[in-house]
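Supplementary Note 2. Why include the ligand at all?

Several targets in our set were suspected to adopt different conformations when bound, so apo predictions alone were not considered sufficient. For every target with a known small-molecule partner we therefore ran a joint prediction. The input for 4'-deoxy-4'-aminopyridoxal-5'-phosphate is given below.
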Amino acid sequence: MLNIDVAKVPYIRTAVPGPKSIELLTEQGKYETASVTYPKSFPIGIKSMKDSVIEDVDGNLFIDWLTGISVLNLGYSEFIRDAVRAEMESTWHALEIPTEARIEFLKALRSSFPSNMQDYKTIFGISGADACETAVNLAHAVSGRDSYTIVFEGAYHGVSGGIIAATYESKYKAGNNSPGFKVIRSPYPGILWENYSVGDVIDYIQTAIRENSADSLLVEPVLGEGGYVVPPEGFLKALRKLCDENNIIMIVDEVQAGMGRTGKMWAFEYDGIKPDIVCAGKSVGGGIPMSLVYYRGDFDEKLPTPFHLGTYRANPLALAAGREVLKRTPAVLDSVKERGKYLLKAFSEIDSDVIAQVRGKGFMIGIELGKNGGPVDSNTMARYKKLLIENGIVMHTCGHYGNTFRFMGALNIDQKLLDTGVEIFEKVVRTKW
Ligand code: PMP
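The joint prediction is reproduced in token form.
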């Protein structure tokens, strides 16, 4: 791993991409599908990573505000590497046959949930899509009905077989023509340029379920790919009530907002609700692929064996890394809440006529760019993105119009990389073309 003085980050010594990065990107293009997405947004070749710093093959050092899309919530940490290394000494593939790391992980996972969710059980998966797909199948198995699932505008739950239907944007569906699960699509409250209140959304769903009966509802507590939209307070509570009154199983997708990202271990805790099913992924394996569904223990009675299958589920290395992440995340939650507020203020104070809205919770912060009463166009966004990486920040965008920059730095990022990052971000969004 790199030995880095964060005071010297970012350090940009070549054009971006530099010559060695161009070489790797060109080679990749020869062998790998032309449909890769991330190298188009972040045109570098990676040499090494340490904590919240990425070194490219040309010797440039970037601030990592991407964290592999909220996968590396505790960065490229030595303690995760060491946990994986130690586990590697004993085993690295065990199917569902228990290992000590597996049991320790399951116990740590359960204790990360509120006290009224201690009788829940876990099904492991590989990806976020896998977890969300399993959660909806679980709801159908429990309800005994293959009926509709209520989902939302802006939602992203994955792009595989059934769950593709729950994901909102058609741009994500080009590679999968399957109709997927039957869904009722509701507006999501709090989206800029739209005007839905919590009451409007509840009315909308109530009307829709009179026509088509629903057995489940799948919701992100903060919209992730949909634009880092924080819904008005009480949204999840109102959904919980609606689910209780209509015998609907409530599934909360914490794949992106969970694992401390919003300053609480699980984002639904802000609303004090008790979901029936929770989906987790991304950071739950500390960067080694793993996902899971945490569900009401009494649902177990309704599940056949086998119910969900997959050779690679809960790999011992992912369990060891995840156990380390679960152990260390509680210690950073207060700082995420505090530094999240600091960042919200810092981004809000930037004097730029293209910032339309700054919003967020904890370290899930969206900076939406707009001009003349509408979103900034994609060409202008591409220019800002290019400038950001050229100035040493790896930062992604999201939202229906792709015009929201999203901060999703590691929860334990060095303060210096926040301060410097905000300065660079400010310089970039104040650029006049
Ligand atoms: N749910 C949410 C909220 C997500 O943000 C994502 C991925 N961005 C997924 C599900 C799907 O996860 P994966 O890409 O691991 O399938």
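The chain has a mean pLDDT of 96. The pocket of 4'-deoxy-4'-aminopyridoxal-5'-phosphate is lined by residues 69, 127-129, 132, 156-158, 220, 224-225, 253, 255-256, 281 (CB under 6 Å). Comparable summaries for the other entries are listed in the accompanying table.
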